[in-house]
Amino acid sequence: MLSALKLSTRRWRRALVASVASAALCASSAVFADFSRLGQLQNKGFSISAEARLLDTDSNALLGSLNPERQLSPASVTKAYLSAAALSHFGPQHRFTSQLVSTGSVENGVLHGDLIFEGGGDPGLTTEDLWRLVQRLQLAGVREVDGALVVSQWRFGPVECITTDRCNARTRVTNAYSAPLTSAGVNFGSWCANIAPTAVAGEPARVGLCDSPAPLITIDNQVITRPANSGTEISVARITDERGDVMRLTGQISTNAAARDVYRGAGDAAEKTAQVLLSMLNQAGVAVRDPWRVSSTRPSGAQRLAAVDSKPLQELLQRTMHYSNNYMADVLALNLVETPQAQLRQAGQAIEAYAESLPGHGPLTLTSGSGLTTDNRTSAHGVNVMLEDMYYQSELFPSFVATFQSPANGVMRFIRRGSSTFQNHVMLKTGTLNQPFAVRAVGGYFRTAQGRWGVFSVLVNGSGSTPYLSWAEVLDPLSLDLDAMILAN
Fold it and tell me: Where are the alpha helices (DSSP H) in 287-404?
């Protein structure tokens, strides 16, 4: 009865907020301060959707708007939708469980049957977690596997690529953000190589995998050590050929340079997990008789031998949002799909369904949860409706707002600009895309000079004929527009 009353109250409040916001939206823009400085980008051919308004006021005062209902690409501001949907669905303390299971029995330290790693959709699974699994397997009495190591990605994987970056990355990649997606991935679906100079110039640099001392994949090391203070310039590509995944490194590193780690998406994230986990089992003295393999079917009748839980969802979301981690975002979105073998469009539809429950939101199209595509569409008004709804969720808002960055203290250096008012009164999430057209998007919360809360969203989209758009061209005028709104209220 109480939960039903609470739900009814929330719906009534949302409907009231939506009606007030809609009325305010129809008011003449001449009455309110607007995004006059930011709006000058329209003269260069860019499309803009922008809106800022106060919360916790009788009228939810509109402070500024510019085509607030226009549907544009939000890029990584999509991750704010993902965070809101995930918190609403799972709750802040939810953990994803990865486990080792088997249908076989353990006798005298021998597991008679396959050892199955069942991926739990943990977007933050690391080699440290895998080591815990191996240790707990040993504590369960397993010393030998009379079968194979099987990596099961039955929840989702392999996930079809829908963007050029991820599709091209199946054979060659020079970044980590295009890593393939699976419910059984480790280290964000990427290989890590550590590069260090030798003591003598002219010799090849020392290179090894961060994941394992064993040579799990081929390393084509063409990095040369140069004299001290010669500068360090390294290019790294992961290619996949008949040898499997290959890390190709070229360039130079100075004798007095610090060692550095570089990350590149794997060709197949589940296969990478199998290679790393098998190496760990070998190092721990757990012998596995047969070669590893990957499966997309759910093991039936299997019993748990060892398990490891993820960090709480609220911590996973902070990392996802602060670093705009595309792998984590899409894996979390895929977790929202109830049926096995989820794909990205289904994940987007799950987030769309969440947004449809917010009165006054308007249209929303998401083909993924990361925003790594210009096909996603929403409006500044829609983003603000979502932000406002989360503000009123007392049990979720502390975890949600913690995922946004303060320009003064955020991990992304490019947002550290503008006046002290902007830097210390705003919490934001940014979104960036450059192909096939430029997208610069930002949304979040602000506190006014009188301590009131407000929400703002800005979507700026270019086209094939518009010039390159730097963040300075967006954040500099936006910071001035928000300064005026913050100080006046």
Answer: 313-322, 326-335, 344-356, 380-391, 397-401
- Token pair for 87: 């918190």
For the CA atoms of 264, 266, 272, 273, what is the dihedral angle to 10 degrees? Answer: 70
Angle at 347 between CA 344 and CA 349, to 5 degrees: 115
Give 293's strand partners.
150
Please state, in angstroms and rounded to a whole number, the distance separating the CA atoms of residues 469 and 489: 31
Q: Which of 262, 138, 282, 134 is nearest to 190 (CA)?
A: 262
Q: Confidence band (pLDDT; 50, 70, 90) for 56? A: confident
Task: List Cβ neighbours of 432 (8 Å cut-off, separation of 6 or more).
Answer: 75, 76, 439, 440, 441, 471
Of 101, 52, 42, 104, nearest to 452 by C-alpha is: 52
Report the run of H or E that residue 85 belongs to, with start and end.
Answer: helix 78-90
d(CA 40, CA 468): 15
CA distances 427 to 192, 296, 407, 444, Å, are 32, 40, 7, 6
Q: Which helix (H) or strand (E) holds 222?
A: strand 218-226
pLDDT tens, residue by residue, 341-369: 999 999 999 999 999 999 999 999 999 99
Whether omega for the bond prior to residue 213 falls within 30 degrees of 0, making it cis, is no
Tokens of 426: 């705003």
**Averaged pLDDT for residues 187-199:** 97
What's the rounded Cα separation, in Å, for the pair 90 and 266?
A: 29
Q: Which residues pair with 264 in a beta bridge?
A: 191
Is residue 430 over pLDDT 90?
yes
Q: Which of 371, 146, 117, 134 lies closest to 269 in space, CA to CA? A: 117
3-class DSSP assignment, residue 436: coil
Name which of 385, 392, 361, 358 is nearest 56 in CA terms: 392
**In whole angstroms, what is the distance from residue 237 CA to residue 224 CA?**
16
CA distance 439 to 474: 10
Q: Determine the length of the chain.
A: 489
Q: Could you give phi then psi for residue 305, rounded to 5 degrees?
A: -110, -35
DSSP annotation of 393 = -
The residue type of 288 is: V
Q: Are the C-beta atoms of 457 and 63 separated by less than 8 Å?
A: no
120 to 272, 361, 367, 483: CA distances (angstroms): 16, 32, 22, 45
pTM over 0.85: yes
φ, ψ of residue 201 to 5 degrees: the values are -65, 145
| Residue appearing with tokens 């190589």 | 193
Q: Which residues of 9-61 form beta strands (DSSP E)?
A: 47-54
